[in-house]
């Protein structure tokens, strides 16, 4: 279920651990009056989702320009939206949603025209930014459109080189709209990787159960064999040493608007929930 405010935006709200949607009041300006401990996010109308998916520039420069426009239309402007030069004229695009704590959660997708599966994942990031502005967030979120492998490497190096702490987690988005949502959380050996990764995986299971989806998490080799359309996925390679998870769908079928809507809803629900579930102080490095 959903609520529509006077400016046309809709909000989805859920209290963690409860499968029932909660209705909360929206003010005339369309602001969300959410209760503490409640998961809330804006829902992009299906018609707008379909329009954004349908327009696919044929070259990377056109895709980057259109993604910048989408972020701007959803309110990510000024210093919050920046291009990050990579090489040979290519760039990453970074949209930052400030939270109460500077420790960032990075949400990354690729936008190049080299793969047909890239565009739905890339165009989902502006929608996910729009979803999360419904509430004040605990973590700072960085929505990163990476141009390629070099772009991902420069992205992660730049974040790690900041004077503030390294990313708390990386969430990669890939191959959306092909079937039921799936996720893959590789193991790692960082100081907080095991515990945070386990929390991130548990939250994905919980949301799938609430929504009634038969989500299947497999071992790495099995996942690669079952989902050849996605694997090998290099989206998580540059995030080694950071808790990470891949949200995707892969059945081998062409992307469908209905499947994309479901995948986007899962991702928005997931990002909103882990913002509440993860503790920024519990896993500080020594």
Tell me briefly what this model is:
Helices cover 34% and strands 20% of the residues.
Spell out the blueprint of helices and strands.
Blueprint: E1 3-4, E2 10-14, E3 39-43, H1 46-54, H2 60-73, E4 81-85, E5 91-97, E6 101-110, H3 118-132, E7 139-146, H4 149-160, E8 169-174, E9 182-184, H5 193-211, H6 220-226, E10 244-248, H7 257-277
Parallel strand pairs: 6-7, 6-8, 8-10
Antiparallel strand pairs: 1-2, 2-3, 4-5, 5-7, 9-10
Helix pairs in contact: 1-7, 2-3, 3-7, 5-7
Give a written overview of the molecule.
With 286 residues, the chain is of the alpha/beta class. The protein is built from seven helices and ten strands. The strands form two sheets. The chain has a seven-stranded mixed beta sheet, sandwiched between helices. Strands 1-2-3 form a three-stranded antiparallel beta sheet. The longest helix is centred in the C-terminal third of the chain and has 21 residues, at 257-277. The protein is globular.
């Amino acid at each position: 279920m959903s609520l529509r405010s006077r400016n046309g935006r809709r909000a989805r709200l859920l209290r963690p651990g409860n499968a029932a949607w909660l209705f909360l009041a929206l003010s005339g300006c369309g602001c969300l009056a959410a209760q503490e401990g409640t998961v809330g996010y804006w829902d992009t109308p299906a018609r707008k989702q379909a329009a954004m998916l349908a327009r696919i520039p044929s070259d990377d420069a056109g895709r980057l320009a259109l993604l910048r426009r989408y972020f701007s239309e959803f309110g990510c402007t000024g210093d919050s939206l920046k291009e990050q030069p990579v090489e040979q004229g290519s760039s990453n695009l970074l949209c930052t949603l400030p939270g109460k704590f500077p420790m960032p959660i990075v949400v990354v997708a690729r936008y190049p025209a080299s793969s047909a599966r890239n565009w739905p994942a890339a165009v989902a990031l502006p929608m996910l930014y729009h979803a999360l502005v419904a509430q004040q967030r605990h973590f700072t979120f960085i929505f990163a459109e990476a141009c390629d492998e070099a772009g991902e490497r420069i992205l992660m190096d730049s974040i790690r080189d900041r004077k503030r702490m390294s990313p708390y987690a990386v969430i990669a988005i890939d191959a959306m709209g092909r079937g039921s949502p799936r996720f893959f959380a590789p193991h790692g050996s960082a100081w907080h990787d095991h515990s945070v990764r386990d929390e991130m995986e548990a939250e994905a299971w919980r949301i799938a159960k609430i929504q009634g989806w038969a989500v299947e998490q497999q071992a790495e080799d099995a996942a690669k064999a079952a989902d050849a359309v996605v694997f090998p996925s290099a989206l998580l390679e540059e995030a080694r040493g950071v808790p990470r998870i891949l949200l995707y769908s892969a059945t081998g079928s062409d992307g469908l608007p209905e499947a994309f809507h479901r995948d986007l809803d899962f991702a928005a629900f997931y990002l909103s929930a882990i913002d509440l579930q993860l503790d920024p102080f519990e896993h500080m490095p020594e």
